Amino acid sequence: MTDSTYDFGAVRDDLTPLEDDCKLLGSLLDDCLRVEIGETMFKKIERIRALAQCASNLSIKGDAGASDMLSHRLAEELMNLDMDEAVPLTRACGHYLNLSGIAELHHGVRRDRSTREPNANSCDAVFGRLIAEGVDPEELYRAVSEQNVEVVLTAHPTQVNRRTLQYKHTRIAALLQQHDRSDLTAEERRNIVSELQREVAALWQTDELRRQKPTPLDEARGGLHIVEQSLWAAVPQYMRRLSAALKKHTGHDLPLQATPFRFGSWMGGDRDGNPNVTAKVTAHVTALARWMAADLYLREVDTLRFELSMNQCSAAVWKMARRIIAEGHTKRAGVVRAKAAAALHQTATDAASHGGSAASAAAAAAAGGDAAADGASAGGAPPTAAAAASDSFSFSRAGRPRPERPSIDTRGVGVLTGGEGAAFPGGMILGTQPVSAHTAAEVSVPHELPGQDVEGGSEMDFNESRRDSEGGDMGGASPHPMLGGGGGPSGGASAEPTGTGYSSGAAQQQPQQPQQEPEVPGTPGFADPGTPDRLGPLPGPFTPGPTPFGNAAAATARGSNSGAGAGAVTGMDRASSGLGGDPTLTRRSLMAQRLGTSPVQFARAHEHPGFHPYRIVLGHVRDRLAATRRRMEDLLSGREPAAAAEGGAGGSGALWYENEDELAEPLMACYWSLWECGGGVIADGRLLDLIRRVYTFGMCLMKLDLRQESTRHAEALDAVTTYLGYGSYLEWSEDDKIAWLTKELQGRRPLIPADMPMSAEVREVLDTFKVAAHLGRDNLGAYVISMTKGASDVMAVELLQREARMQVGTAAGGRGGGPEDGGSLRVVPLFETLEDLDAAEDVMTRLLTNPWYREHLRTVHGDAQEVMLGYSDSGKDAGRLAANWALYKCQERLVAITKNAGVKLTLFHGRGGTVGRGGGPTHIAIQSQPPGSVEGTFRITEQGEMVQAKFGISGVALSQLETYTTAVLLATMRPPSPPRREEWRTVMEMLSRVSCESYRNIVHHSPLFIRYFKHATPEEELGNLNIGSRPARRRNKDASISTLRAIPWIFAWTQNRLILPSWLGIGAALTAAMSQGHLPTLQAMYREWPFFGSTVDLIEMILAKTDPRIAALYEQVLVADPEERKLGAELRERLQRCQGAVLKVTGHEALLSSNPTLRKLISMRSPFVDPINILQVEVLRRLRKDPNNMRLRDALLISINGIAAGMRNTG
């Protein structure tokens, strides 16, 4: 029910259940307060709350006089409070608001679940509506399967709640859901209420303030916490709901590999104006994300291994299992021989040191040497091996030496080198199980049953078999009781998945001649008539060969090159590449062939008594996941990464996973094997959920975008051209820049000398590109250029990318050094200010007509171009209405020029949480985009408190995923209407011009405005809130509005309830249009043009949240200059005129009269927000007289938290 989370205007809701929840949580908090602060103070809080409630009710009913009288009395009482009383009162009101917010979110989920008719924006309802309107089912199926929506989570500092409080809030929401059950006994209901009481008490006793400013690593952990907390469970639920709706309306299931929804991140990659985000931080954040992915997959695989206990499997899975057993036995034998060699060597040494004969010592040494040689050839570690140098943050295997794993220093575990923060604070990451130095020797299995060998039979001590292996998690399957002790083949290279089974890991490095499949030790004499090897080929899917997962090997090969060119398989084009399709036909074929085969023949072909083939395969998957997790631990702890054993020294015994296709291949093999053997219902359970997660989250959960300001790249190139004697790049014209950049990009020689001296700033820019070249597309998404002014800004990044790839390729022995390497990240220009939006057409036209860039776009990026639009800075620059119109026109022009150039356009919308930064309900926002701007692809940022509000609870996240999917689908297949008459465009141009002039006359041209802004809001004090790692300004010494970031700009005005950036200039524009007789035209535009209608609705919602009485109080107490006070009075008068103009256009009697639900919610919050505002005014007054008073600072920060909780969308 958060304002920007649920679509307002469309829901007339019964709020009785919500009010009951609020009363329950409020009463529990009251009980807690009586104990914590005493009955006397609690009664004072009750009285103040009653005064605020009465004043609010009288104001709503129109009795301004009585309301003002009570408000004045309330202010007098609050401002005379001692801080010892003010702080608990502020905290109490803030907690009431947070608890009511939890109840609102839960009520939204409850409403969606209890409604008999499907939600109008649900997949079922939208698909049915489109089919009824004549959309071909096949067209609908194709559109959904190929859709690509990506939500990019950012660390913009508007989330004031600590993560520990967010967790407690989520716990309370879960308990409310349990409390709703109608089948609870009286005892169960009492227990739930008791649990709620404990959570509320814990909330009160927890410090809500961040005492230290978060680092970029802390922010990244917060984003990963959202995945673990809710998205991990919500995504498979969403995919099931989507697939069921497709099946119902089109007859097809969603392709197994479809990724209609993905997540990205800016946390640890957004370095625009944030010196705390360095190249090293980006590498650490990426390693942290891969660690978390491996850990989450490990938990799922552990559960699957116990679930898939059957002994029937397909020929492909049996072949995989046989190879794993053979390789594991060989490796185990090698380890034993290596241990024997070490023991004999020690014996020889001891004999010599104790006076033994030289002959006997030499014989023992020779025997040890022979054993060591045997061990090395069999995959064991020789006694000595030279460690090879390796890049500390390399995520690519190809062409890299594999150093010996160093000894483990337990003191280094959990600490990042350089003191940049703990990778594993207290040995923990995001609440997962502890990670210690013992991980290298043994990884605990949460779901493991004692005494059961999950990789084979059930008579083995599984933990013992793992301890006996020096490979730690590899453990190799020890010989099964059915297998003899015969020796196996030498050369124990680790098993690696291919299209039809598992091949030698060494084979991945260079082509080899086909080799015969190694026999499982001890099996030649055991002619099992039930194995496929003893039968003739069976028809159809029983025949080993191409399978539904057969193309994964090719995708893996492409993915291992750290990127993809035109033929690469990504989430956006996987469905159209042939890798994904309707699985229904394959399932039916497998079922039919099983039914057409005699049971005896089928059993002989598929049963393997005494073996658990799925456990064997999944056990190997687990080994590789554990190796992946260990590698990330090494990187995060500053240790040399452990080498994957390919017969090399000290290896962990398993290759780590580089991309999702490698992980998906054995899972897909198991999936189709289950269907082949009649276990389709099992395959479509936990295993299918895991496959969906693999393709949605990949091996890094959320690919990281990099962002940097364009001037930083220009300064780096200026240093290069100056050093080389070419002149100053910064002084060149745009034409000269593009000509030089094109020439360099067309060449193949390196540009930047390795020994070139450079400043720290330039070196950091170049280091970022080197890290990007190392990490590649498997870990990174886009490179976003903020403040893009010309085509040269994009070409400059392309040149710097190429240089980094060549340098990294040279350092790695030639790997990846080509100028057209597929690892190149897509470069995304970001147009932010009004002037930039107007110039975007010329910039993109020049890019798309540049021969080098056009060919690069075709060969490397598949004729796809992404452009980002900035809603925050454009609104701060020109006002919300002018910015919205400029964004609309910019999108129209970009759609036209890319269509003419034959380029597929993806628009990336940089929206914030509040209307002033482009925020608003998801469905309305997407549906109001220009026609053709949403063609099945859509990227958008979610920031600050909106991340928690939309995705922090699994049920809410599920609803949001569905809303994004259907909104993008409707915008693609039923695009919004453009302006129906040219007159509407003319009127909109006039509105934009007048509103921009009115806004800029106040914000940018008034000499009093900046002083008034600093005095009447807590803008300067926001820097003490510790809610983000990024500075509030791009250039700290410049105090102008242009350098102030959009987030504190909005946040400060939200605190004093004027919310000026969201409406300033709009009233003047509407009044001017109505004075020229355009009121009927405006009303028609509101009813019939989605863009204009949604804009006005959002403005109306913000106006309903403003409170000029509170804004006047801030001014009265904090602003001393009479001229500034006149400005304040003028602003409040403009607010009143804007409200009147909006009501005339909408035809509503009062603000939000068409949405009584949201109006009621706002009125429910006011009695708690108003006292916090009054207390904040008094705290600011005292703090500005005593700025070093830490108690006052804490009180101010608590008040800021409370107001943010009440206003909901603050940034």
What keyword list fits this structure?
1211 residues, mainly alpha, de novo design (two linked rop proteins), 8-stranded parallel barrel, 10 strands, 56% helix, 5% strand, disordered N terminus, EC 4.1.1.31, carbon dioxide fixation, lyase
Largest beta sheet: what is the strand line-up?
1-2-5-6-7-8-9-10
**Which segments are poorly predicted (pLDDT under 50) over 5 or more consecutive residues?**
1-10, 356-392, 398-579, 644-652, 813-819, 914-918
Amino- and carboxy-terminal Cα gap: 17 Å
Helix content bin: 55-70%
Strand content: under 5%
Secondary-structure map with pairings?
Layout: H1 16-37, H2 39-60, H3 64-79, H4 83-114, H5 123-132, H6 137-146, E1 148-154, H7 163-179, H8 186-204, H9 216-250, E2 261-265, H10 279-307, H11 315-353, H12 358-377, H13 462-467, E3 495-497, E4 502-504, H14 552-559, H15 584-595, H16 599-606, H17 613-636, H18 660-676, H19 680-697, E5 703-709, H20 710-723, H21 734-746, H22 760-775, E6 780-786, H23 791-811, E7 826-831, H24 834-848, H25 851-861, E8 864-870, H26 872-878, H27 880-901, E9 904-910, H28 922-927, E10 937-943, H29 945-951, H30 954-973, H31 982-1003, H32 1009-1016, H33 1046-1055, H34 1066-1075, H35 1079-1088, H36 1090-1105, H37 1108-1118, H38 1122-1146, H39 1156-1185, H40 1190-1207
Parallel strand pairs: 1-2, 1-10, 2-5, 5-6, 6-7, 7-8, 8-9, 9-10
Antiparallel strand pairs: 3-4
